[in-house]
Amino acid sequence: xxxxxxxxxxxxxxxxxxxxxxxxxxxxxxxxxxxxxxxxxxxxxxxxxxxxxxxxxxxxxxx
Length: 63
Hints:
The chain crosses the membrane at residues 12-32. By secondary structure, the protein is an all-alpha fold.
């Protein structure tokens, strides 16, 4: 934001930033899809949910 001198330069820099980071999320999804099998992705997504539920139950018992 050091280069912003007015509304037009702000919008131009925001546009360029958006263009630069637009491909990041699809690239991460493609990387994960190609490097881990479906079963591994499934387990890595389910385990945090189970842990969160367990921690929630522990919190309820302690209050």
